[in-house]
Structure formats: structure tokens, C-alpha cells
């Protein structure tokens, strides 16, 4: 009765082997590395770059111990931190000849020194949270009200122009809070306007209302449009943040949306939160100016501003533009990658009404001339688009060229990064110094280690051989937990380590239940084999119930918790799941292997059962 | 080895009233301290700035306080962990740009003493704090309701209700301790409280499981006898399990450092009171709520054909 079929043992064996495999990378520690990633949407980090860098490093006799090219960029591992600094300097010089205008982010990083075959099967060490590795965490709130107000203001402008073009006379268009109020002299005009607006801006919900002598239309954004606007505002800010974080040279920044209107920024290893805050809070602007053709031909820089432009082949050329600024960033309403009538990739740009009027006049007077869009950040400008004016246009136009869809996407992101961004506010900050991080790891690890030792000593003394089995099962539980955390790459924080300790302390409950039950069955006069079977069987229901109640608490922490609580809850929930398997199935397998195949057992080594 | 050679059933239920009066008194005291002292919430809940600074030599707490006062930053300054570490707490001040308070503090302390090293900064805006408190309460509520529902389905509503009353009263007692000693109530402490809630309920579940089993086995015994024998049957397991879990909590207290201190403390109180309440409070409650053998031992089903009304339509 206490025998598992061979496949069950095999399955348990395979699970443990897999857990060992995924736990393995945690033991190799980390080696210094240099990380290279792109600082510009137009600059790509690829295999060609890797080859170039390898040659450069070889020429200077800087030995590398491995390279890794993935979504984060390129990582070059070296033997020690001296070499790391040397390699970083060399790479920095090679890739960014102009330190004022870096094209690549070259950062110091740590890379797991586990062998390549482990990395190839995606066996990675646990991902440590900021409180363990040190760094800065910001939570930013996007000011949605401001973003919506801006949007409604631009709609008001559009409506004024639109109604004028259709010869519908209104008696005033004004924004009040989150609504637009349009006044008309009579009901007929209002009805005409109502249908006209429906065509003009379909994302508005319109309601007719009478206010004394006036006939009104109250327009609000439709719920789906509202959601769309919010999404866009957050996405734009994320794009902007990415660009700025890249200037900080952080190896593995995390920039994510949280909830509807919040953005988390985590910068591991950053020691200077003041600088980080300064850079994150900076605003970028856009300018549209006409290119001075005269100066371009002669190369003179008299009475023009010169900005660099990055060509598609990677070369940089100077673009002289006239001093007069036609349109500024705050006048942009939207920019998105689309396709033109001939199905060529294009960027569609939308300006507000005032800017539209300026553009109409400028384009009429400058047909076949060049126009440049300049992105200004940190007081430095770069021409992100230089295009020939093909016809007269106003507030809506398209930029075409021989673009690929990726390029139009990048360009529209750049345009949006320099405009439109809704204001953001830092509402949470956590900074942990590197020494505190190291200390936290050490303390958490020690607490778990000694707690584990205490439990193992006690269990083995109290339940003798069965106590040893229980301890092995507990060890396997720890193994599974670490393997799962490594596999899922869940963030391990200090509360997470506490959860590992606590979960181990709770997991032993299942084995205590089983062992007590077996003792009881033996005292009740059962044969050893029957006592084992009955002990496991009867304890199972209780183990399940008690784990489910613990899991309910864990899950609600996971759902409602944030920050440190969530770090705790993830590990706690995973630990409960692994503990059920290890304490019931794995310990049973060990017991079965030891006792199940014996004909006669005189005595079970489970401690003192001789009393009545 | 065997610590608990209990040969007779211990008549726990005879003293049920005493146990409940003791726990009621503790509960009342906890509520009193909560109302009178209130909880000492961390910046995570109240909003504000927290800066942990490490000095080469023993920190001059008074001098630091004066420096900050002069700069118009009113806050608490105290030692943290060792005499070389200082924790500065600054509340949110209306109308002040809150996000850069930490920078101001850092700059001030660095000019005062160049060895000052900022180890940790936490800034929480007031809106986040309110949300966290709200979510914390919500998590507690969902856990309680979830556990009642689960026990209702698996056992009986009386068990669910008794378990949650007994264990929520543990939660109040933990909070009472934090109010009495003005220990800092932070997010990890909240996590510990909820984890203990789940853990103590599992304690009650083990007893209830045995109660149910004994109702089926001990056909002639009275309800208190059944409960007594169930508690006696699992008492050694209860104590051993709690000792093991407590071993972990104790090592966290000893080795975990200041960051895990209150977390481990909350666990310790929760585990100690958990034994008491989940066994000695929950079980009498079940009894008084009117648990009965009939709820578990189903009478043999009647043959539906015997029932004349079966299948009748109106």
C-alpha cells in the first residue's frame, strides 16, 4: 500500500532535477559587465555593432569573458572591475565621439556569471528588488485633468474653424471644466451645428440645452475617447521618460504604467536621486522652422541657427534654419504613424488652430522649400525631420519620405516626446543605498538560514527518521520556491525573503500533522504500513483546508497590496503551493522508498510511540 | 522523543467561559489602547519623508534636529538600529513642494558633517498614503469574508463564523500591542498581520477537522466531550507547529535587523495569541453557536418513492 508506481518516482525526480537546474544560476554570483544600449530611436544595437566592439576591444587587448545581445541591449562581461572601467571608457570613446550628444548609453552593470548553457535555457538568477541591490524608485502621477483640458481647448479651436468654414454662426464657444459649451442665437442654427459637430469631431457626446435666451450645445468627451486620451497621455510620458532615463546611463531601468494614470520608474544602482529627479522632471520642446536654403548651399552660418540632423545611413549633417519659429511644441495636438494615399508609411501630424493658420501662410509662401522639425532637450536641438513642402496645408499634414513603418513610428514618438506631455508629479520615492541593500540580503539570508537549521534540528530529534524525511521535504520546498522565483523572474525584495522564512516555518505544519497522525495510528494499534497510509490520507484533508485559508489571505494581499506587501504576497502564495507538493508528495515518496518495499517492519523510526 | 504523553482527555470546555473572559478582557484592553493611543503609522500611510542617515561616528541627534529646525523642517529625529544610524521623519506640510524635501535634508546634513551617508529615502505623497490605508483595510475585509465563505462551504457556517471571530480578535490584539508600545505600523507589518490571520485560521481548521471526525466516530459523546477530545488529540501538533513557526519568527527578530524587526514582532504576537484564540476561543464559540452531530452525520436518506408529495405539481 505504500508504494508509488515507478512513473511517480520518476516524475518527482524530474521535478527536483528541473528545480535544481533553475536554482543553479543563483550560486554563480555576478561578474562585472559593460552594457550598451541605444539612446536614440534611430540608433540600433545589433550584431554589427557587437562585431565592431569586439574588434576594438581585441585591438586594445581587453579580454572579455562573454557577450550577450538581447532586448536590453548588448552586454559584455569582463573578468574584474578594473577591466570593466577600462572597457567602459574605451567603448564610450568609440561609440560616443561627441560626449555632448551621446548616441549610445554605456553603463556599468552586473551580469550573472553562470555558464552560457544555463542562460540559454533561460535559467537566470532571481531578480533582486531595489531594496536588495540599491537604487531609486519613483512613482509619478500624470495630471490627467491638465491633459484633458488641453485636448478640449484644442477641440474648441477646431470647432471655431470648422463652424466658420460651414458658415454656421455661433455666439461663443467656451470650455467649462471638462465640458465645452457652444452658444447659438436660435434653435435652427443649433441643430445645423449639432450635425456638423457630429461629423467634425465624432468623439464628442452632444447634449442640447436652453439657457435663458441662448440655445446651447454641451459637449463632453465620450467615455471610450476619454480612456483613449488617458492612455495616450500616459504612453507619451513613458516614451519621454525612456529617453531621459537613457541619459542617466542606467543598466536596467524599469518604466511601467501602474493603474490608470501612474508610472513607476525604477533605476537600480543609481546613487544620486537628485540628478535623477532633475533629469526626469525636465521638459522637452519642439520647434518647426523653415530651412534657410541659401545658407545650406553656401554653408554660411550668418543669421541662422544650425542643428544636426541624423541621416538614415548614420551620417550627421548640419541643417541651417531661419531664426523665426513657426510652431512650438505646445501647439501640437497629435502625431501618429500612418500610411498615405499611396500606402507609403507616413507620419500624420495635427496642430491646433492658431498654428494651423501660421502653417497655411508659411507653406503657401514657401512651396518646394524645406521645413525642419527640431526637438530641443536639455537646451540642445536636433532636427528630427527635414521635409520639402509639397503643397499648402494647415493644421493637419503628413510627413512622407522613403520611410519604413518602424521609422515613421519612431518619428511620431519623437514628435510626441517633445510636445503634448501631460504634466507629471512625483508622488512616491524610495532610495536605497548599495550598502544597505547588501546588508538586507545578508540579514534576510541569515534569518532564514538559522530558522531553517533550528527546525531541522528539532524535527530530526523529535521524529527521528521521519523528522529527517520532513526536513528533506522542507529543503525541497525551499528549492522549489527559489527555482520558481528564478523561473518567473519575480522581483525578490526583503519582505519577500521574510516571506520565504515564514512560509518555511508554516510549511513544516503539514509534516507535523502527518507525523503526529502516524504516531497516533500506531498507538491505536495499527501496523506500521497501515499507519503510514492512514496518517498521510487522514492528514491530507486538514492540510488542504489549512493551506487554502492561508492562501486566501495571501491572495488578497497580492490583489490589494502594493510595493513591499506585494513582494511579500508573491513569495508567500508561491510558497504555499510548493509546500503542499513537497510536504505531501515528496515526503511520501521518501517514506515509500524507505519503508514501502519491506515485507515486515518491526518498528517505525518516528520517535516515542510506546506509551499508552 | 515525546513531550505530550496525554493519557486522558483534557476537559477544556469546562473552562470555556474562563478562556473567553480572559480573551474578552485582552480584547477590550487592545481596543482601549487603539482608541486611546492610536497606531503609530509609518510614512507609507501618513505620507511624508523618511531619511535614514549613517555617520562614521556616533550621530549627534540633538544637533541634527536643530539644523533641520533652523531650515524650517520640523520632524522626528531618532537613532535607528545603532548609535551611528539616524532616522529622520518629516510629515507632509501643506503648500510645500514635498518631493524635494529629501534633497534639502541630504544637502543640509552633508554640509554639517561630510561623513553623513544617506542609506535610504522614502517619500510618500499624501494621496498614496490614503490609498494604502484603504487597500489595507480592504485586504483585511476580503480575507475575512473569503475565509468565512470557504469554511462555510467545507464545514458549516458556525465554524466559519467562530474561526473568524476568534482570529480577528487576534488581529485586534496585535494592533493593540502596536498601539500600546507605539511601535511603527508599516506595510510589512500589515502583511504580517494578514499572514498571521490566514495562519491562525488554519489552526482552527485543524481542530474543526478533528471535531467533525470525532462527531462521526464518537456516536454517544456529548458536544463538549467531542470538542475536548478533538483539542486533546491535536494539542501536541498545535504546539510543535507553532514552535517551529515561532523559531523562524525568532531568528528574524535576532538576525533580521531593524528592517524586519516589527514584522517579526507582529508575527510573534500573532503566533502566541493564535494558539490561544484559535483553539480555546474558537471552539467554545462553535459550541455556543449550537453545533450538533446532526449537522455532520446525515440520517440515512429516505427512499424518494415513499414520499407521497414527491413529484407533485400545483
Detailed description of the structure:
The complex is a heterodimer of chains A (612) and B (314). By secondary structure, chain A is of the alpha+beta class. Chain A folds into four domains: 6-24 and 433-596, Up-down Bundle (Multidrug efflux transporter AcrB transmembrane fold); 31-113, ACT domain (Alpha-Beta Plaits, 2-Layer Sandwich); 147-222, Hypothetical Protein, Haloacid Dehalogenase-like Hydrolase, Chain: A, domain 2 (2-Layer Sandwich); 285-426, Gyrase A, domain 2 (2-Layer Sandwich), CATH 3.30.1360.200. Chain A is built from 16 helices and 23 strands. In chain A, a hairpin with a 3-residue loop joins β11 and β12. In chain A, α8 crosses α12, α13 packs across α16 (564-596) and α15 (528-560) runs antiparallel to α16. Chain A is elongated, with a radius of gyration of 33 Å. Chain A starts with 5 loop residues before the first helix and ends in a 16-residue tail after the last helix. By secondary structure, chain B is an alpha+beta fold. Chain B folds into two domains: 12-40 and 128-295, Multidrug efflux transporter AcrB transmembrane fold, CATH 1.20.1640.10; 48-124, Alpha-Beta Plaits (2-Layer Sandwich), CATH 3.30.70.3400. In chain B, 62% of the residues lie in helices and 11% in strands. Chain B contains nine helices and six strands. Chain B has helices at 16-36, 43-46, 61-70, 101-112, 126-154, 157-180, 187-217, 223-255, 257-288, and strands spanning 40-41, 48-54, 76-80, 82-91, 117-124, 184-185. In chain B, the strands form two sheets. In chain B, strands 3-4-2-5 form a four-stranded antiparallel β-sheet. A two-stranded parallel sheet of chain B has the order 1-6. The longest helix of chain B has 33 residues, at 223-255. Chain B is elongated, with a radius of gyration of 26 Å. Chain B starts with 15 loop residues before the first helix and ends in a 26-residue tail after the last helix. Chains A and B meet through α9, β22, α13, α14 and α15 of A and α4, β5, α5, α7 and α8 of B.
Amino acid at each position: 500500500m505504500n508504494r508509488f508506481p515507478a512513473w511517480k518516482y520518476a516524475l518527482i525526480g524530474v521535478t527536483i532535477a528541473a528545480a535544481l537546474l533553475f536554482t543553479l544560476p543563483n550560486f554563480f554570483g555576478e561578474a562585472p559587465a559593460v552594457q550598451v544600449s541605444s539612446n536614440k530611436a534611430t540608433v540600433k544595437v545589433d550584431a554589427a555593432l557587437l562585431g565592431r566592439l569586439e574588434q576594438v576591444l581585441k585591438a586594445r587587448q581587453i579580454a572579455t569573458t562573454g557577450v550577450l545581445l538581447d532586448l536590453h541591449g548588448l552586454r559584455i562581461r569582463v573578468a574584474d572591475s578594473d577591466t570593466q572601467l577600462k572597457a567602459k571608457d574605451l567603448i564610450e570613446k568609440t561609440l560616443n565621439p561627441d560626449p555632448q550628444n551621446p548616441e549610445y548609453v554605456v553603463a556599468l552593470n552586473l551580469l550573472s556569471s553562470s555558464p552560457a548553457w544555463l542562460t540559454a535555457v533561460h535559467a537566470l538568477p532571481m531578480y533582486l528588488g531595489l531594496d536588495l541591490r540599491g537604487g531609486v524608485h519613483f512613482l509619478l502621477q500624470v495630471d490627467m485633468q491638465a491633459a484633458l483640458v488641453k485636448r478640449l481647448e484644442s477641440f474648441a479651436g477646431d470647432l471655431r474653424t470648422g463652424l466658420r468654414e460651414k458658415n454656421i454662426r455661433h455666439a461663443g464657444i467656451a470650455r467649462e471644466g471638462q465640458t465645452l459649451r457652444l452658444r447659438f442665437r436660435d434653435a435652427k442654427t443649433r441643430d445645423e451645428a449639432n450635425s456638423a459637430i457630429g461629423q467634425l469631431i465624432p468623439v464628442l457626446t452632444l447634449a442640447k440645452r436652453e439657457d435663458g435666451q441662448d440655445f446651447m450645445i454641451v459637449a463632453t468627451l465620450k467615455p471610450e475617447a476619454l480612456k483613449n486620451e488617458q492612455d495616450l497621455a500616459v504612453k507619451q510620458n513613458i516614451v519621454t521618460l525612456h529617453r531621459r532615463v537613457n541619459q542617466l546611463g542606467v543598466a536596467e531601468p524599469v518604466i511601467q504604467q501602474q493603474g490608470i494614470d501612474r508610472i513607476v520608474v525604477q533605476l537600480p544602482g543609481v546613487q544620486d536621486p537628485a540628478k535623477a529627479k532633475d533629469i526626469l522632471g525636465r521638459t522637452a520642446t519642439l520647434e518647426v522652422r523653415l530651412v534657410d536654403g541659401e545658407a545650406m548651399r553656401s554653408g554660411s552660418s550668418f543669421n541662422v541657427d544650425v542643428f544636426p540632423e541624423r541621416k538614415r545611413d548614420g551620417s550627421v549633417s548640419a541643417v541651417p534654419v531661419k531664426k523665426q519659429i513657426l510652431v512650438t511644441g505646445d501647439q501640437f495636438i497629435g502625431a501618429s504613424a500612418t500610411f498615405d494615399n499611396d500606402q507609403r508609411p507616413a507620419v500624420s501630424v495635427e496642430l491646433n488652430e492658431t498654428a494651423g493658420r501660421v502653417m497655411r501662410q508659411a507653406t503657401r509662401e514657401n512651396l518646394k522649400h524645406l521645413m525642419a522639425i527640431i526637438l530641443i532637450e536639455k537646451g540642445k536641438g536636433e532636427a528630427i525631420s527635414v521635409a520639402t513642402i509639397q503643397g499648402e496645408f494647415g493644421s493637419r499634414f503628413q510627413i512622407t519620405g522613403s520611410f519604413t513603418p518602424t521609422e515613421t513610428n519612431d518619428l511620431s514618438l519623437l514628435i510626441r516626446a517633445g510636445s503634448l506631455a501631460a504634466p507629471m508629479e512625483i508622488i512616491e520615492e524610495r532610495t536605497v543605498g548599495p550598502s544597505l541593500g547588501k546588508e538586507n540580503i545578508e540579514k534576510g539570508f541569515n534569518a532564514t538560514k538559522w530558522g531553517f537549521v533550528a527546525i531541522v534540528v528539532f524535527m530530526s530529534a523529535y521524529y527521528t527518521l521521519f523528522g529527517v524525511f520532513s526536513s528533506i521535504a522542507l529543503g525541497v520546498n525551499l528549492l522549489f520556491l527559489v527555482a520558481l522565483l528564478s523561473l518567473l523572474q519575480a522581483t525578490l525584495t526583503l519582505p519577500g525573503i521574510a516571506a520565504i522564512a515564514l512560509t518555511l516555518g508554516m510549511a513544516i505544519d503539514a509534516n507535523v500533522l502527518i507525523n503526529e497522525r502516524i504516531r497516533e495510528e500506531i498507538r491505536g494499534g495499527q501496523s506500521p504500513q497501515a499507519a503510514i497510509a492512514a496518517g498521510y490520507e487522514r492528514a491530507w484533508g486538514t492540510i488542504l483546508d489549512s493551506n487554502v485559508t492561508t492562501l486566501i489571505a495571501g491572495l488578497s494581499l497580492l490583489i490589494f497590496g502594493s510595493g513591499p506587501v506585494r513582494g511579500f504576497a508573491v513569495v508567500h502564495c508561491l510558497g504555499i503551493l510548493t509546500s503542499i507538493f513537497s510536504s505531501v508528495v515528496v515526503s511520501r515518496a521518501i517514506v515509500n522508498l524507505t519503508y514501502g518495499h519491506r515485507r515486515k517492519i518491526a518498528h517505525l523510526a518516528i520517535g516515542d510511540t510506546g506509551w499508552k | 522523543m515525546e513531550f505530550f504523553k496525554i493519557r486522558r482527555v483534557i476537559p477544556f470546555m469546562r473552562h470555556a467561559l474562563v478562556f473567553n473572559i480572559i480573551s474578552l478582557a485582552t480584547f477590550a484592553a487592545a481596543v482601549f489602547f487603539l482608541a486611546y493611543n492610536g497606531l503609530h503609522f509609518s510614512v507609507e500611510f501618513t505620507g511624508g519623508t523618511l531619511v535614514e542617515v549613517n555617520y562614521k561616528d556616533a550621530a549627534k541627534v540633538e544637533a541634527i534636529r536643530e539644523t533641520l529646525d533652523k531650515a524650517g523642517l520640523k520632524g522626528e529625529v531618532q537613532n535607528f538600529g545603532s548609535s551611528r544610524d539616524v532616522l529622520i521623519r518629516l510629515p507632509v506640510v501643506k503648500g510645500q513642494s514635498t518631493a524635494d524635501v529629501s534633497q534639502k535634508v541630504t544637502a543640509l546634513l552633508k554640509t554639517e558633517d561630510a561623513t553623513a551617508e544617506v542609506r535610504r529615502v522614502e517619500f510618500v505623497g499624501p494621496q498614496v498614503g490614503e490609498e494604502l490605508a484603504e487597500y489595507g483595510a480592504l485586504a483585511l475585509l476580503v480575507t475575512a469574508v473569503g475565509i468565512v465563505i470557504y469554511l462555510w462551504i467545507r464545514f458549516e457556517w458556525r465554524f466559519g463564523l467562530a474561526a473568524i471571530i476568534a482570529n480577528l480578535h487576534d488581529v485586534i490584539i496585535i494592533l493593540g500591542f502596536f498601539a500600546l508600545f507605539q511601535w511603527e505600523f508599516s506595510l510589512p507589518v500589515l502583511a504580517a498581520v494578514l499572514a498571521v490571520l490566514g495562519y491562525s485560521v488554519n489552526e482552527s481548521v485543524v481542530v474543526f477537522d478533528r471535531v467533525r471526525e470525532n462527531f462521526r466516530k464518537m456516536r454517544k459523546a456529548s458536544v463538549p466531550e467531542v470538542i475536548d477530545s478533538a483539542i486533546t488529540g491535536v494539542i501536541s501538533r498545535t504546539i510543535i507547529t507553532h514552535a517551529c513557526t515561532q523559531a523562524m519568527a525568532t531568528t528574524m527578530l535576532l538576525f533580521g535587523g531593524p528592517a524586519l524587526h516589527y514584522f517579526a514582532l507582529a508575527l510573534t504576537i500573532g503566533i502566541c495569541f493564535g494558539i490561544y484564540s484559535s483553539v480555546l476561543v474558537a471552539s467554545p464559540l462553535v459550541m455556543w453557536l449550537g453545533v450538533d452531530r446532526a449537522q455532520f452525520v446525515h440520517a440515512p436518506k429516505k427512499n424518494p418513492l415513499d414520499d407521497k408529495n414527491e413529484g407533485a405539481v400545483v
